[in-house]
Structures are given as structure tokens and as C-alpha cells.
């Protein structure tokens, strides 16, 4: 069991007041808060070992390089990648997806098909559309039902020899649906298609095992798992990473450069051009250590309790509708109140110290499906409490009274 007071004490921002009220931070789907160990590790890096990596012979450069590569190893262990060179540092999920779509431009031809799910974040839609424009490939959409679950019978029908890539999130940021990715990966592989999993919303709640999943690519952001912004990971199977051309050209990614011809460095450096976010990459390892110390079983138990309690409490409010009622879901509650714009509720409850997200959550197609402009989204983390949910429910009731 979690000692919630001890956990909360790890996050200095949580004891703040906002607009004169105790902060209730329920926007974890957008970014998580950072524990003191992560904040400290950033200044420790700059105070003690700051130097460029993989370049200098001097001591600090060696220390920084070692710390960066140790962090890569931690992440490799965490997601159970076979090789550390399958773990690429990126600036986030968006960067990881664009790296892959850019690489596939040279492998696809007109008429090839890319399957994308109806539940995707814009960053797992738009890069694929850009790839289709470049190559003449065709984007097909795996539909969902009213509960916000992908319809597997339709997925099975869409798969064919034309399918080259399937891209789907592990967990939906807008609705919290956990997708049956193991099934989807296995089915796609029967047709020789590659599968990219957008794990941005999954890694805060669970520990993915990329070898067991057998996915070809798995991407996530550091800032949603207690790590710094501007950090992320692209896991790719060695074979695929060897097949894809580099994304950006520059320093660090080359073996030899002449004006006639350049040869590229080995993995992972082939995809890591330029000076990266060194402090961020190192501290992402610190964040992952922290999450593992808290323990993913504890995290899941606390979040499940919050999801159940929050769902029950919110449904006490007349005219409140929850979007996303999948059997398998995480601690995200997307809702609206009949006749009231989500933005108006969000603005009023912010005055009461409650931070939620309102809008389309970078997933406009989902909002279009439900025929709404957006929702209010409360997304809980393991450091949230039932008392905070009570505060949100009271605030929403007050906002509703003021607005109706
Ligand atoms: C947050 C998020 C992204 C984008 O992540 P960035 O950190 O902004 O690159 C993509 N997909 C999902 C499901 C997300 O939740």
C-alpha cells in the first residue's frame, strides 16, 4: 500500500495554493508533476558533470557520457528491450513518431495501406497523413464503438496484404481506453505489417514489456512519467532501425564525412544527431527509478480506486455524462454537463484551485465521433487522493449552479 502522505511530500508543487486554494492537480494526462529527486538530479547534473557527450577525452565528458548511457540501460531494462541500441532518446512522443514516419517514406509505395485507430492523439495521425501525401499510401481508420473501444471485428476486416503499418495507442489520452494491443500486434504480423504503439499514456500506469508485446516500435514521453519535458524514448526493433534511413543529419550520427559521401554511425547514434537533451536523458532514468520505487502495482491500485471513486462521485451530478466507458480503462474521466460548455466549467473550477484539461485533448476525431466540441478531463495520478476528488466534485457543482 502507498503511504500517500509520504508520496505527496515528494512533490513540492502539490502543497502550493493556486488562486488562494489548495492546488488539486488533475491534469496528469497532459503532464505529470515532478518529484524532488528529479528536480535535484537536474541541478546536480549542471552543477557537477555538465559536458558534451560521446566526444571529449576529458573526465567530465566521460562522466556525462557514462551517466547518459547508464540511463539508456535503465530504460532498456524497464521496457525489457533486447538491446540498449534499440532504445533511442528523443524529445518526446511526437518526435519519435515523426522519426518513424519519416523513415517509412522510403519504404512505402502508392496504394500501400496504413491503419490508424479512431482513438489517436493528433501526433499519431498527422505525421501518417503527411507520409501518405509523400508516398501515395492510404490511411484507413479502425473504428470505435460508443464506449470508446476499438472494434476488433472491423480491425480484422481492414487488415490485408496491403497493410504495411498499424499505429495505435496503448491507452487513449482522451478517454482512458486500454486497447487490446497484444491481439492487434499479433494479427498485424500475420500480414507482415509493422506495428507502432504510442505508449505516451500507458507508461505512467504500467510497465510495458516490448519483447512480450512483440511490437516493432514503442514511443513515449518523459514528462508524463515524472521526468523532464523535452525527453522521450523511441524503442524500435533492431531490424527495423537498421532498415530505416536516418531522420536528421548532423554531428554524432556519422561514421565518416567527406563532400563526396557520408557513412552513418551504428545504432543508436544513427538516429541521435546533434547535442541531445543530456540532462533530460540522464534524469529520465532518475524518474523511472522513482516510479519503480513507488511500484507499479501500488500505482495501479491507487489509480483504480481513484477512477472508481471519481466515476461514482461525478455521476451524482445531474446532467453529467462520462465519455469513455470501456471495460478496460485507466484513471481518466472525460465528462460534460448538459447544456454547459466544458471551457466554462474549467475556467470556474480553476478559480477554486482545480486543474483539469478542457477541450478536444488533441483528439478532434474523437470529439467529432461524439458530436461535442470537447470535454472536461480529469486525469489522476498515484499522488492524487479521494479528498481531492471531493473538492473537484464540489467545485463542479458550484460551477454548474452558476452557469445554469
Ligand atoms: C501526450 C501524448 C502525445 C504527445 O506527446 P508529446 O510529449 O506532446 O510529444 C501523443 N500521444 C498520446 C496518447 C499522448 O497522450
UniProtKB/TrEMBL annotation:
It is an enzyme of class 2 (transferase). Residues 24-391 form the Aminotransferase class V domain. Keywords: Lyase, Pyridoxal phosphate, Transferase. Its cofactor is pyridoxal 5'-phosphate. Transmembrane segments: none annotated. GO terms for biological process: cysteine metabolic process. Pfam families: Aminotran_5. It catalyses: (sulfur carrier)-H + L-cysteine = (sulfur carrier)-SH + L-alanine. GO terms for molecular function: cysteine desulfurase activity; lyase activity; pyridoxal phosphate binding. It comes from the Bacteria. The keyword Lyase applies. Its EC number is 2.8.1.7. InterPro entries: Aminotrans_V_dom, Aminotrans_V_PyrdxlP_BS, Cys_dSase_SufS, PyrdxlP-dep_Trfase, PyrdxlP-dep_Trfase_major, PyrdxlP-dep_Trfase_small. Gene3D superfamilies: Aspartate Aminotransferase, domain 1 (3.90.1150.10), Type I PLP-dependent aspartate aminotransferase-like (Major domain) (3.40.640.10). Catalyzes the removal of elemental sulfur and selenium atoms from L-cysteine, L-cystine, L-selenocysteine, and L-selenocystine to produce L-alanine. Belongs to the class-V pyridoxal-phosphate-dependent aminotransferase family. Csd subfamily. This is Cysteine desulfurase. It comes from Flavobacterium weaverense.
